[in-house]
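wait is this the right file?? whatever heres the structure
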């Protein structure tokens, strides 16, 4: 099974759990990311389906009237939060490849009464929007799941308007990660095996055309967070972190 199929299967399972009234994940990486004031006005399904590693909407400095795109939008929590921030004159797109997650997201949109939201079916390596279409790209622990991250970042650059902002939460590594971790599909869909090394992330953003690049650690994971055996866990403890990655498309 390919990485893409494995990821799709995992997130379809998570969506079905949410539709059954359960939380999509109990992973420590996904816990305690949003303040109660942020989630209090959202449908329960959006909160249950939250599988990210950060809170990009709180850090993206969104403004009224902007157009936002969330790569790998899942159950829609960051799209709905973005829609509130950009207001009725703005728009928030969510892009996801998993039909079950799109069903959850659209149900949450209806419950929230969000009219400035649109969920798109597609892959983050081939964004179904024209060039120069959005002001801000956000994403929450999804780019690390792609097997072609260079393509994702080039597509992000393409759809951003000149001066547009890239503002994503993702998992990154500092230093080498053992091959046993890199080759584990279970850890890949758990946001660890596919994580880019910090300097490699910066290089790929530069190659795509971005400037003003920064990587800001938001949470360093200890081996007890990883949900893996102790030998591998000790190898990666302290090297894997949730981070906020910022960049800009030149004017």
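ok assuming it is, sequence goes like this
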């Amino acid at each position: 099974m390919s990485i893409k199929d494995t990821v799709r299967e995992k997130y379809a399972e998570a969506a079905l759990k949410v539709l059954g009234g359960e939380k999509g994940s109990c992973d420590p990486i996904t816990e305690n990311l949003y303040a109660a004031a942020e989630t209090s006005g959202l449908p329960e399904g959006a909160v249950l389906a939250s599988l990210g590693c950060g809170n990009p909407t709180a850090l993206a400095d969104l403004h009224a009237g902007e157009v936002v795109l969330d790569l790998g939008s899942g159950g829609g929590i960051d799209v709905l939060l973005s829609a509130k921030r950009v207001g009725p004159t703005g728009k928030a797109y969510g892009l996801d490849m998993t039909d079950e997650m799109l069903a959850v997201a659209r149900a949450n949109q209806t419950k929230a009464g969000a009219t400035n939201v649109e969920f798109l079916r597609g892959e983050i390596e081939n964004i179904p929007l024209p060039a120069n279409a959005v002001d801000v790209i956000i994403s929450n622990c999804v780019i690390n799941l792609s097997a072609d991250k260079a393509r994702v970042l080039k597509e992000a650059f393409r759809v951003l308007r000149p001066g547009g902002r890239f503002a994503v939460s993702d998992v990154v590594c500092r230093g080498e990660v053992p091959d046993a971790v890199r080759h584990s599909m279970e850890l890949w869909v758990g946001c660890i095996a596919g994580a880019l090394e910090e300097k490699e992330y910066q290089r790929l953003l530069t190659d795509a055309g971005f400037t003003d690049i920064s990587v800001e650690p938001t949470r360093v994971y200890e081996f007890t967070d990883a949900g893996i055996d102790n030998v591998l866990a000790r190898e990666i403890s302290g090297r894997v972190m949730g981070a906020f990655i910022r960049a800009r498309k030149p004017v």
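The chain is about 35% helix and 25% strand. so i think its the right one actually
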